[in-house]
Amino acid sequence: MRVLFITIERPYPPVAGPELRDWQNIAAAASRFQTGAVFLTAAAEESPPPPGLALWRRLDLRSPKEVWGAGGETPLDVGLSARALAELDTVLADFAPGVVVLEHTHLHGLLPRLRGTGARLVVDMHNVESHLYRRLVPPRLPLKWLERRFLDRGPARIRRVERRLMQAADQIWLCSDLDRQRLAALGPARARLEVVPNGVPPGRLRSDAPRRVPPSASGGPIRLLFLGQLGYPPNVQAARYLARAVAPRLAVAEPRAEIVVAGRAPSRKLAELLGAAPNLRLVADPPDVAPLLAEADLMLVPLFKGGGTRLKVLEAWAAGLPVVATPRAVEGLDARPGTDLLLATGAKGLADAALAALREPQLYARLSAGGLARIERDYAPERLAPRICALLEGLAPA
Description:
Elements: E1 2-9, H1 17-30, E2 34-41, E3 55-58, H2 64-68, H3 82-95, E4 99-103, H4 111-115, E5 120-125, H5 129-136, H6 142-152, H7 154-168, E6 171-174, H8 177-184, E7 192-195, E8 222-227, H9 233-253, E9 257-263, H10 268-275, E10 280-284, H11 290-295, E11 298-301, H12 311-318, E12 323-325, E13 342-343, H13 346-359, H14 361-379, H15 381-393
Parallel strand pairs: 1-2, 1-4, 2-3, 4-5, 5-6, 6-7, 8-9, 8-11, 9-10, 11-12, 12-13
Helix pairs in contact: 1-15, 5-7, 9-13, 12-14, 13-14, 14-15
């Protein structure tokens, strides 16, 4: 059986959350099936294609900003150029996939082309986008509420697309059971709604053993890491909160501590805000996150909005890095507070929890071991790949 993945971002090498999930699923499929991947956008510097794929092709030569900024039926659609559509038609004819996996709800505009291929359709919803959009664009002032209610109607427009996908697809993959329930609440579905958790894809940093002490125990600086795509609104909000609320408290409570905010595509305004905090350091567009994870003492995740499951938490767990997070940051992970991580709310709570983990060796070691054990049990590629392959196998013709 041939399986074709269609993604927006180049899925390999994975840098941010969406690519990590995409590569997890593609690598799993490639372990058993003849697998191809096509994508719309890529970084300016192209890297070699991954080994083991039968097909690897970029569909569009435009910049990511042009692809993402085109608008469409919903506020989240990507722009599909004539060149991209022609390239895709060629791929569909030549590769003749038995299953097509459409990554992201944003690519729903490809449905008319996929219907005529005879391929079974899987839609991987990284988030339930109508729910996420409602969280990210809340009504605040009456005028803004009216504007969204009568002019934008973003959540309603996205829900219509999601219902259409629920009828057109054979399977829909969701990050968590909570997201599965949210989608099921939109109405009956022809598609089977399946949970495919985010995990740590092959080749990503995984520690061989839990940490016993933080790197700063040798006398170096205390580093609290926040990792995320810095053009994504929930991550921007978190970075601002770290600069404005958490960093000042840490400066008083522990002068050795610094917050390291690392991620792709920070705006000039955000970079200026982060640069103004004396105990906060911005690492923009890191080529590799492994050194940042290795040198950090713990991961600090003050998320207040968003959806899906948090790959930054999974990456910290895989590196043996203890995690201090807000409750929203671990939604969908079924994490055990005090064993897998520490939960806190408010700037004081986050700072106090982080320093407590660093100052109590038994707690630090327990959190490191708890997170690493969760990866090995639930989120490692050898755990998730069989699940992904079984779902794809179920779509093969009898």
